[in-house]
């Protein structure tokens, strides 16, 4: 379905924080990996003409559009990369799929289960014509996370009993941190729950190969009103509040905590918060099984801790595996062992996997259906918090 048989022309919608991360990935993937298709960074779309021009120059896009509709209508575009806030994901992705374009869509897939369902239907219709789609849970592509999944699949930790996951940030702990779209339910769908809780739901299910069956949770909004911003940095709240004195209503959760029961029998404890003072982007995951345990923290993202219960008890203990060997996922394309990877590499790996699947005619993962399943878990947590009761996640 590519425009020219060996070129994939990409059009990106949105050019803030995620747009910058995706641009770097589209640019770097072919420089480090042997891709089956030539990539063309054909166009970027944004509403403000001056800003989108500046972004295209800075991020390396050939041309610009001032509406996503114009970008989707372009015949020379093969793939649409959706890097906008959640309220526009469904509309853009469905239009692009209907126009026969492959779609990469930022997470969470949508703002509601209903939107996500419509996206899955559109993806399935388009798939019949060879059109592919993927949702951007990039942390799956951290090598240490890939290794963790492999160890679980190989039975190295045995039957999974416990899943412990925290996603901890602190960028709005200051009550004077200004409003941003991420604090507005009509734009973002939810707060910490969907923005970062979605990642740990996806990651724990990816690592364990299991899915969450039922949840009991509580959402909290600690600061209910904030100053309207003078400017917004990278979609996160800026440090300087606007001078007008006007305040806006925070309509999403600041933090979410929930218990989960996995279909395979494991018990899960999850926490997602923007109020963990001092924690910037900690993603901590621990899995305890009948034969061993795994532990990961994104703030030390090249490392996986592995406890092998089969070791001699006199010398057993968590071993610190530096996941930078060529046999670890994606690493061979980069630097020699011990030369570390960072946040942006996950986005590059995402492009590599997507382009490889498109060229091979395979279904990329995580699919829109996977994104919908995560959305159902998030919706169940919200419902549980409202009802003060356990809530099942539809299979
Ligand atoms: C903001 O909380 C954010 O940028 C998330 O939206 C991303 O998904 C996460 O990778 C980092 O934090």
TrEMBL record:
<dbReference type="Pfam" id="PF01408">
    <property type="entry name" value="GFO_IDH_MocA"/>
</dbReference>
<feature type="domain" description="GFO/IDH/MocA-like oxidoreductase">
    <location>
        <begin position="148"/>
        <end position="294"/>
    </location>
</feature>
<feature type="domain" description="Gfo/Idh/MocA-like oxidoreductase N-terminal">
    <location>
        <begin position="9"/>
        <end position="127"/>
    </location>
</feature>
<protein>
    <submittedName>
        <fullName>Gfo/Idh/MocA family protein</fullName>
    </submittedName>
</protein>
<dbReference type="InterPro" id="IPR050463">
    <property type="entry name" value="Gfo/Idh/MocA_oxidrdct_glycsds"/>
</dbReference>
<dbReference type="InterPro" id="IPR036291">
    <property type="entry name" value="NAD(P)-bd_dom_sf"/>
</dbReference>
<dbReference type="InterPro" id="IPR055170">
    <property type="entry name" value="GFO_IDH_MocA-like_dom"/>
</dbReference>
<dbReference type="InterPro" id="IPR000683">
    <property type="entry name" value="Gfo/Idh/MocA-like_OxRdtase_N"/>
</dbReference>
<keyword id="KW-0560">Oxidoreductase</keyword>
<dbReference type="Pfam" id="PF22725">
    <property type="entry name" value="GFO_IDH_MocA_C3"/>
</dbReference>
């Amino acid at each position: 379905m590519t425009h020219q048989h060996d070129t994939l022309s990409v059009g990106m919608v949105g050019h803030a924080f995620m747009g910058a991360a995706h641009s770097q990935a589209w640019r770097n993937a072919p420089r480090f990996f042997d891709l089956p298709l030539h990539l063309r960074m054909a166009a970027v779309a944004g509403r403000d003409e001056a800003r989108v021009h500046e972004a295209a120059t800075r991020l390396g896009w050939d041309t610009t559009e001032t509406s996503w509709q114009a970008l989707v209508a372009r015949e020379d575009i093969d793939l649409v990369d959706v890097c906008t806030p959640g309220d526009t994901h469904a509309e853009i992705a469905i239009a692009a799929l209907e126009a026969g374009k492959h779609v990469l869509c930022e997470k969470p897939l949508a703002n509601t289960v209903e939107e996500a369902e419509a996206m899955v239907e559109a993806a399935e219709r388009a798939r019949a014509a060879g059109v592919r789609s993927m949702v951007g849970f990039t942390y799956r592509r951290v090598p240490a996370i890939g290794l963790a999944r492999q160890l679980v699949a190989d039975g190295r930790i045995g039957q999974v009993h416990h899943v412990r996951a925290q996603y901890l940030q602190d960028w709005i702990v200051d009550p004077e941190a200004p409003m941003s779209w991420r604090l507005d339910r009509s734009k973002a769908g939810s707060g910490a729950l969907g923005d970062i809780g979605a990642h740990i739901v996806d990651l724990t299910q990816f690592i364990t190969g299991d899915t969450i069956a039922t949840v009991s949770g509580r959402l909290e909004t600690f600061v209910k009103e904030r100053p309207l911003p003078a400017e917004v940095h990278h979609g996160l709240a800026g440090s300087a509040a606007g001078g007008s004195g006007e305040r806006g209503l925070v309509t999403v959760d600041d933090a979410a905590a929930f218990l989960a029961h996995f279909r395979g029998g494991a018990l899960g404890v999850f926490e997602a918060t923007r109020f963990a003072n001092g924690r910037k982007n900690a993603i901590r995951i621990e899995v305890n099984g009948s034969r061993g345990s795994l532990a990961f923290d994104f703030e030390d993202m090249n490392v996986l801790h592995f406890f092998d219960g089969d070791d001699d008890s006199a010398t057993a203990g968590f071993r610190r595996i530096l996941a930078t060997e060529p046999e670890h996922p994606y690493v061979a394309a980069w630097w020699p062992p011990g030369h570390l990877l960072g946040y942006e590499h996950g986005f590059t790996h995402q492009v590599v996997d997507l382009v490889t699947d498109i060229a091979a005619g395979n279904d990329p993962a995580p699919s829109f259906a996977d994104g919908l399943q995560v959305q159902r878990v998030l919706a169940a947590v919200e419902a549980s918090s409202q009802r003060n009761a356990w809530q099942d996640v539809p299979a």
